[in-house]
Amino acid sequence: MAELTEQQKQAYWRYNIRLTTVLLVIWFVTAYIISGLMAGWLNQFTFLGFPLGYYMAAQGSLAVFVIEIAVYARLMNGKDREYGMVEEE
Amino acid sequence: MKRTWTLDKIFGLYTLAFLGVTTLIGLAEYLLGLPPKWIGWIFMALSIGIYVVIGIITRTSEADQYYVAGRRVPALYNGMATGSDWMSAASFISMAGALSAQGFSGLAYVMGWTGGYLLLAVFLGPYLRQFGAYTIPDFLDARYGGNIPRIVGVVAAIACSFTYLIAQVTGVGLIVARFIGLDFNIGVFVGLLGVLFCSVLGGMRSVTWTQVAQYIILIISYLVPVVYLSWSIFSIPLPELTYGQLLQSNNARAIEVTRDAKEKETRALWKKDADDIDAKLKAADVPEDEAEKLKAQRALALRQATAPAASDEATIGRYLTVPTGVGIWNFLALTFCLMVGTAGLPHILTRYYTTPSVREARTSVAWSLFFIFLLYFTAPAYAAFARFAIYARLVGTQIAELPRWVTLWAPAGLFEVVDRNGDGIVQWADFVIKSTDFVVLATPEIAGLPFVITGLVMAGGLAAALSTADGLLLTIANAFSHDLYYNVIDRTASLKKRLTITKILLIVTALVAAWVATYRLAIIVELVAWAFSLAGASFFPALVMGIWWTRTNKTGAVAGMIAGLLVTLYYMIGSRFYGVSWFGTQTIASAIFGLPVGFLVIWIVSLLTEPPPRAIQDLVTNVRYPQGDKMRAATSSAVTPTTAH
Q1: Domains and CATH numbers, chain B
Q2: Which of the listed residues B22, B390, B484, B513 has the most CB atoms within 10 Å of its CB?
């Protein structure tokens, strides 16, 4: 691979930090705020026959986690390619 | 790519063959009246046979193959292997039942055991892959330098893996005993044969491919019964979507049952039992052990006396009641500890060493969680279907004409049907649940499905327990032989000698675990929950700080790991046995204190002492930029295992 310049390295790492932070915030809000602290209040709404708070803790949050990791893998792998960081596979 | 295609073909055919054989057994049961015991034997022999054959085919004595499956496991398959490595007997057999018993609070497990994978994905997985060691203690040694971090890592890895292993071995024994009717102790050893064949012959390589095979069996067997029930009740084969309606209709039925006069009578009798026991307890000089027994009886009677629905307006009762105050604190704390523990368990972390590249490691975490999600997503539905089946097929039947499954399951002792008010009819309160494990194991029969489905569920439970045992056993044996013997005691030992030692240790560890399991210690369940807190408080801070902060040094890491472990241990033991209580936190959420202490100590001690050598700091910075194995070769002086090729 071509050596990356210091600048490129910084840009790449900043992107990673930003992505990681966004994902962690979503993770925290989904798991601890929506499915935890707010679940009781959310239970007054119904979704697919489930009270919403229960649904979020039992299924909704899990789906969010799966999507988050898939997005992370996709975006970071794309970024690697953009910066020409090719690994022999 | 070509290789993946071959793998797809192999495992595709394997899945079809498994489904085909299951159908054949079903036909044999339907047409020829194949007895249940035979079905149990066939499923057990067949599945263990498959694992043994895979073990033999993939045997190896190359270091890279033995420790990290040659780092050539494609993301998808590593995801499946991680899925079955991760999902143990507890996930498979106990979780659905525990959810039905604990209601909302039980969801901490569902969220904690899945949300942890995000932490693993963004903080650890890809970076550990880039580092490219063999074991987690290897990483600690390479990053922090010297034997002390490695030894602390070895101790922590063995501590959390071994307790977990005993629980799996116990699970194997229970399943074999229940379905085949073998003695528990013999069951344990039979199951272990299957485990040992893989791990001894081919290390990580065999374990990986066996785990993929085990994942396929366990997910099929978990989904088939609920999908079938969902289809037969709602004509939609997606239990995850339909069980919301089922919760509603169960609730309506519960209110109906609660109003029933006979039901009220039965409950009143249970209440009277509880009061009688209370009176006995209040009377002076009841011996200690006698009092314990009475208290358990009273708890049971009180539970039976509780109406299935609190009031007419009660929506879906305590199922949905979100705890408040200390309850919600414990819910959040437990969720957090399970998440961090998930991201800190060595047998899971090492799975991400086995992918061909950093990119595949990232994709692989996504696949792992997806495959785990398939089961966890379905688990809460199981309980609703079980309850539905009991309302529909048991409540209101004549006690003289009990369904066949009641008598079939009686010896297992998971539940009991007693005609409390002697009216000859089964009321809801006549159904005494002793262990919620019946939910997954007995639902197929409760719902009137053929026994072949029960056999399938058994094979799935066995696969879940064996696959986790495989991974744990290998982690423990490698910690002793690779980390302790080779890297600390004798650096000149030949590869052959090291592998021989690993193999002997595998057998010894398995035997010790089996021997401990035969004691059936009651504390095992708690030990497993503790393992998460221990892993979270010891490994997580040292790994995350080691990867994300170049300034972290050896002294800081060692101090942090030890401090995290000690605080967690102190709170665990203190709150379990000596009444220590900080904010009313439950003992299984102990890492909520140990983890921040771990991070803090690493940070402060690192700042107070010398920064790590320049080479190490450069290494940590370089790990950020995936560069394939070239970079690892260049830094092999710091990363020991690459010299072992």
Answers
A1: 2-234+329-383+452-644 (1.20.1730.10)
A2: B513
Query: What proportion of chain B, given as a percentage, has pLDDT over 70?
Result: 93
- Inter-chain residue contact A65 with B115, CB threshold 8 Å: yes
Domain membership of residue A13 (yes or no) is yes
> Do A37 and B240 count as a contact with CB atoms less than 8 A apart?
no
- Tokens encoding B550: 């170049």
Quote the pLDDT of residue B328: 86
Using left for φ > 0, alpha for ψ between -120 and 50, and beta otherwise, residue B74 falls in beta
Residue B309 scores a pLDDT above 70: no
- Asked if B324 lies within 8 A of A24 by C-beta distance, the reply is no
Show the tokens assigned to B38. Answer: 């035979």
Cα B409 to Cα B90, B194, B452, B485: the distances in Å are 20, 27, 15, 48
Using a CB-CB distance cutoff of 8 angstroms, which residues of chain B are in contact with residue A49?
A: 244-245, 247-248
Q: Are B110 and A57 in contact (CB under 8 A)?
A: yes
User: How far apart (Å, rounded) are the C-alpha atoms in residues B628 and A56?
Assistant: 39
Within a domain: A14: yes
**Distance (Å) from the alpha carbon of B241 to chain A's nearest alpha carbon:** 7
Residues of A in contact with B336 (CB under 8 A): 32
A52 in contact with chain B, both atoms CB, cutoff 8 A: no
Number of compact structural domains in chain A: 1
Contact A72, A64 (CB under 8 A): no
Chain A positions touching B369 (Cβ under 8 A) are: 65-66, 69
What ipTM goes with this model? 0.93
Q: How far apart are CA B444 and CA B227, in angstroms?
A: 11
- Distance in angstroms (rounded) separating the CA atoms of residues B537 and B472: 19
Distance separating the N- and C-terminal Cα atoms of chain B: 25
Give the residue numbers spanning the domain of A73.
6-82
Rg of chain B over CA atoms, in angstroms? 26
